[in-house]
């Protein structure tokens, strides 16, 4: 497969993943779909905005750069074409990988620590001591009085962020290698091929 076509496919995969991360992070800000608890009762991992910044914006940039690298380059088509855009995509992909790693790390920590919730008139990280064991014991999830359904809400969204960001790490890594090959070898497409 040509480096340009590969870059385009990878970019078109990274863009929806980054949008998924942005939406998931936005939903983490409103437990149970309500803004009632947003001000003081969200965990640190939610406020770190890893899905919005890391898995979202920091991956959206390399996704767009990869799609552009898959188009006709500034030097034309053929073996010497598209090297400038591929070089930009190398740096963008490394940047996106860092963002995806940040998102993955925060998401896994968010799953391990659990949400802040109210139990017996006390707001705290009540699941922190379980070291993530609460994830496999869903009977514990109902002990949180407020926000309602906060544990499944957080588990679902942080799991989605962890999965999406792990895919982003792989795709950014592949694009990093692909773009590096594209810088050295150029694009194998002939003149006259469409973007």
From TrEMBL:
The keyword Aminoacyl-tRNA synthetase does not apply. It comes from Castor canadensis. Its main location: membrane. Belongs to the L6 tetraspanin family. The chain crosses the membrane at residues 12-30, 42-69, 90-111. One of its GO terms (cellular component) is membrane. The gene is TM4SF5. This is Transmembrane 4 superfamily member 5. InterPro entries: L6_membrane. Keywords: Membrane, Transmembrane, Transmembrane helix. It is found in: Membrane. It is a multi-pass membrane protein. Pfam families: L6_membrane.
């Amino acid at each position: 497969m040509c480096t340009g076509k590969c870059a385009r496919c990878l970019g078109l995969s990274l863009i929806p993943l980054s949008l998924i991360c942005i939406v998931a992070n936005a939903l983490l800000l409103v437990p149970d779909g309500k803004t009632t608890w947003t001000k003081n009762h969200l965990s640190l991992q939610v406020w770190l905005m890893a899905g919005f910044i890391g898995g979202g914006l920091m991956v959206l940039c390399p996704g767009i750069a990869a799609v552009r690298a898959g188009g006709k380059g500034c030097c034309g088509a053929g073996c010497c074409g598209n090297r400038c855009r591929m070089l930009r995509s190398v740096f963008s992909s490394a940047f996106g990988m860092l963002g995806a790693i940040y998102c993955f790390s925060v998401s896994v920590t968010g799953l391990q620590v659990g949400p802040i919730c109210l139990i017996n008139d006390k707001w705290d990280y009540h699941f922190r001591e379980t070291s993530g064991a609460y994830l496999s014991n869903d009977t514990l999830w109902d002990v949180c009085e407020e926000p309602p359904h906060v544990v499944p809400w957080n588990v679902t969204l942080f799991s989605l962020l962890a999965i999406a960001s792990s895919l982003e790490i792989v795709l950014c890594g592949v694009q990093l290698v692909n773009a590096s090959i594209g810088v050295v070898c150029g694009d194998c497409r002939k003149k006259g091929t469409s973007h």
